[in-house]
Design a protein that fits this description.
mainly alpha
């Protein structure tokens, strides 16, 4: 009857939300891995250790694919953006040293353990 249709829809909605959450977590994990690999390749070993301790994501368990690195991803994004919008994307911004920007420092939040 109608109740089973509603329950089926509710179950499908819940499963869809769960899949969306899993995709978000997987995307974050991928970004963390790519960052850790980038820092490792640059020799920032303390940064890599801190990332691994803070996130429970270790390059010993999961690493960037052979043909993927942050520099390539950034370059391809810049090229795509420039082709699409006719200008390079603005990826960073200057932060003034006055106290008005203290709120930006407070923006930091604890990292999720993945």
């Amino acid at each position: 009857g109608k109740m089973s249709i509603a329950m089926t829809r509710a179950r499908a909605d819940a499963e869809s939300r769960l899949m969306d959450e899993k995709k978000i977590i997987e995307k974050r994990r991928t970004i963390i891995v790519l960052c850790a690999r980038f820092f490792q390749d640059l020799g920032y070993l303390n940064a890599v250790t801190a990332i691994q301790n803070d996130t429970n994501v270790s390059l010993d368990k999961i690493d960037a694919a052979d043909n993927i690195d942050l520099t390539t991803i950034l370059t391809e994004y810049e090229d795509f953006y420039e082709m699409r919008f006719g200008r390079k994307p603005k990826l960073t911004r200057k932060v003034a040293g006055d106290s008005d920007n203290k709120k930006d420092i407070d923006r930091k939040c604890p990292l999720p353990r993945l």
